[in-house]
Amino acid sequence: IERNLRRVERRRGQLVALPEELTSAAADPGAEREGREAWQLVQGFLATLDEARRAVFVAALLEGLSAAETAEATGLELTTVYNRIRALRRSFNLWADRHRRGP
Fold first, then answer.
1. Strand, coil or helix: 102
2. What's the whole-number average pLDDT of the chain?
3. Over the stretch 64-77, which tens digit does the pLDDT of each residue have?
4. What is the pLDDT of residue 9?
5. b/e code 24-46 from CB counts within 10 Å (16+ = b)
6. Is residue 31 left, alpha or beta, with left meaning phi > 0 and alpha meaning psi from -120 to 50?
7. What is the DSSP string of 47-91?
8. How far apart are alpha carbons 28 and 9 in whole angstroms?
9. DSSP of 15-29, one letter per residue?
């Protein structure tokens, strides 16, 4: 799956440098802390997923691949990808709400 994701990403083109005003915003300690906390939340959720669902989540929701590109990269049917994206969004939102509130 990872090899397919890399191949699709290569076809999408090269990364573009962020404008200066966007990169300087990361110097804000509060924004940096929030970014770390958000990333920890995402990593925690990813740890709960099996490999196939994790691949769809990363490709479509983190990397921004289209459903068609995600289907190609993962070898899944397009309708399966759409269904998983919808279910993963719902699951992540519920999971994140529970974990933000704490025990």
1. coil
2. 80
3. 999 999 999 999 99
4. 58
5. eeeeeeeeeeeeeeeeeebeebe
6. alpha
7. HTS-HHHHHHIIIIIIS---HHHHHHHHT--HHHHHHHHHHHHHH
8. 30
9. --PPPHHHHHHTT-H
